[in-house]
Amino acid sequence: MFDLSMIKAVYERFPGRVAAARKAVGRPLTLTEKILYAHLTQGDATAAFARGKDYVDFAPDRVAMQDATAQMALLQFMQAGRAKVAVPSTVHCDHLIVAKDNSKVDLERAVNESKEVYDFLASVSNKYGIGFWKPGAGIIHQVVLENYAFPGGMMIGTDSHTVNAGGLGMIAIGVGGADACDVMAGLPWELKMPKLIGVKLTGKLNGWTAPKDVILKVAGILTVKGGTGAVVEYFGEGAVAMSCTGKGTICNMGAEIGATTSTFGYDESMSRYLKATGREAVAELADGIAEHLTADPEVYANPEQYFDQVIEINLSELEPHLNGPFTPDLATPISKMKEVAAANNWPTKVEVGLIGSCTNSSYEDISRAVSLAKQVAEKGLKTKAEFTITPGSEQVRYTIERDGFLDTFAQIGATVFANACGPCIGMWERMGAEKQERNTIVHSFNRNFAKRADGNPNTMAFVASPELVTALAIAGDLTFNPITDTLTNEKGEQVKLDPPSGYELPVRGFAVEDAGYQAPAEDGSGVNVIVEPTSKRLQLLDPFPAWEGTDLKGLKLLIKAKGKCTTDHISMAGPWLKFRGHLDNISNNMLIGAVNFFNEKTDNIKNQLTGEYGPVPATQRAYKAAGIGSIVVGDENYGEGSSREHAAMEPRHLGVRAVLVKSFARIHETNLKKQGMLALTFADKADYEKIQEDDSIDIVGLTEFAPGKPLTLVLNHADGSKDEISVNHTYNEQQIEWFKAGAALNIIRKQFGA
Ligand code: F3S
């Protein structure tokens, strides 16, 4: 399954690239720098890149996509005209399975309900050489760790927790579908050279503490924004002593502090994991260049000199933590929970304990949790809360079943959900959630925003290690501290839980009957991709039309958005998720969250053709039907939030020609450029005030469109008066070609003769 020849090629160039980078930078290198510089599109580094400043082109080794985001990524890729993907890529069906009854029933229901989407993903994968992991095979990040991640590699994935692969020493980064499409088409991938945060782990985990507590502690220190624009590199004796999957948990939740990604240097634990998961050959190759798969020795000896920020955590003193509710950075050590819960009036009765997810479903996690479940019968206890398990992969599920763990969990009344995201992504039909009662749950997932798990805004979710979740579910009490407290058993005796114990890896090895993998056809040229024209969920894309070669005259002002306008305001999520593969249907949410400057209402704008007020998408469709282009005007940091390309594709699809704002969020600005839109900024921000509700707008200067050269906008007001304003742009030569061609993809299409 894994591509050994690709890994070999990466490792062969590693020593030379690292040496060139060391010379260019002029000092010893961190691991992060080694991996990044070893993946420059340009080849050897010739100069150092400034952290937090320079944009750099990289050539990632792999792409991974989950089913919700893969749809648009692949629909775009199909337009690129390539016969096959340029780098090894995989699709994972994990986000669309609702957890309700049990794994078997839930999986069958999902396979029926989303058949069309699954069939589409399977056939596109088959055609273009993409590995396909069927529904039930597991969660993208666990499957990637088990099969594809490798020390020193670089990958991108269309999911924010792609960062999980840092547990195997990768630089793995979450992106939007358009970026995945580019890399699969063989284009460079751009990233601002990240800042570096070093986390030194001293001491050793013991007793009730687990790797999860490291990241819960780090989240408490750095907060949800503290890692923004940075890669977190962990090192020290505590890091080396930890299991590879434990490292994965820590990297996974790096997404919760906003970090670009997190990583660890190659060590014995990674070698053990590679061998246990059938990749002895990769371990051997990594051993051969081990010195390059960790930082230069001077770096960890004097981290303050090489990292932008350094944090030190003594694992021997670390306490188990509970983070939440409603935010993953509200960290409370278990010993303080009694007073903190009382002070905040949090309900202390634990209703449900949920373990698993992409964050914490390793064999080690489950074996340690099961050591606690066993004590329920041994000590005459009764489990107070409901308990659920979502295994991260079929390989883990099969192995823990074989080893009797699922039987033990069954004895405490546990429900095993499908190997999928389920409750972690709100795909949990929890009985009674609609009553919206205040209640407490504990889980070993990563996010705990309001409504995330069961849709109930009053469910308070606390994040903890699987071990602590199990103990709290047994006790049924959020304030139970298993280190000091006792429980009353059925006979009325006071008993204490023994600390968890388990196995880093299965003693009898991993096993699986059907991992759920479908290899692509060797030659996919004959494979037909079927999308029914009547489908509500999928729609093939038509290439966007090329620029007509003239200035744009008579554009109607569609909306002048006031204040915050994030990608959620431009293209809402929630119920719209199901249309992620159907551009026309999802376009019915275009800008419905944006506030109209002129009446302060959302989704209510003036149709200049009729003078009537109506929803944004319908108004824009009326302009489109009349063959009239339009322009969207926005405020500061327009398009902040996710990298969702729908926020750029929808306006493009419906005929908006330009977006003019005070400032852009960088990723959204790039997405607009990629889709062939004009992304413009006011040269003088005060000109925002000059835009009137009935304006027809001309964009002048496009025939001489050039980098660094402002364009002119003529605002033709309804009273016959005019204003002329200057607008800036950040298009380089290449991006101007995207605009002229109608989209970046149209250029790739030409390259491949489509
Ligand atoms: Fe899925 Fe939750 Fe992970 S949604 S990919 S299990 S963060």
From TrEMBL:
Q: Which reaction does it catalyse?
A: citrate = D-threo-isocitrate
Which PROSITE patterns does this one have? ACONITASE_1, ACONITASE_2
Q: Any idea where the Aconitase A/isopropylmalate dehydratase small subunit swivel domain is?
A: 557-684
Gene Ontology molecular-function annotations: 4 iron, 4 sulfur cluster binding; aconitate hydratase activity; metal ion binding
Q: What class of enzyme is it?
A: lyase
Provide the Gene Ontology terms for cellular component: cytosol
Q: Which InterPro entries match?
A: Acnase/IPM_dHydase_lsu_aba_1/3, Acoase/IPM_deHydtase_lsu_aba, Aconitase/3IPM_dehydase_swvl, Aconitase/IPM_isomerase, Aconitase_4Fe-4S_BS, Aconitase_4Fe-4S_dom, Aconitase_dom2, Aconitase_mito-like
Instruction: Cite the annotated pathway.
Output: Carbohydrate metabolism; tricarboxylic acid cycle; isocitrate from oxaloacetate: step 2/2
For the biological process aspect of GO, one term held by this record is: tricarboxylic acid cycle
**Protein's UniProt keywords contain Glycosyltransferase:** no
SUPFAM superfamilies with a match to the protein in the record: Aconitase iron-sulfur domain, LeuD/IlvD-like
Where in the sequence is the signal peptide annotated? none
Domain called Aconitase/3-isopropylmalate dehydratase large subunit alpha/beta/alpha: residue spans? 33-476
- Note the Pfam families from the entry: Aconitase, Aconitase_C
Which keywords accompany this UniProt record?
Iron, Iron-sulfur, Lyase, Metal-binding, Transit peptide, Tricarboxylic acid cycle
- Which cofactors are required for activity? [4Fe-4S] cluster
Q: Which EC number applies?
A: 4.2.1.3
Question: What name goes with this protein?
Answer: Aconitate hydratase A
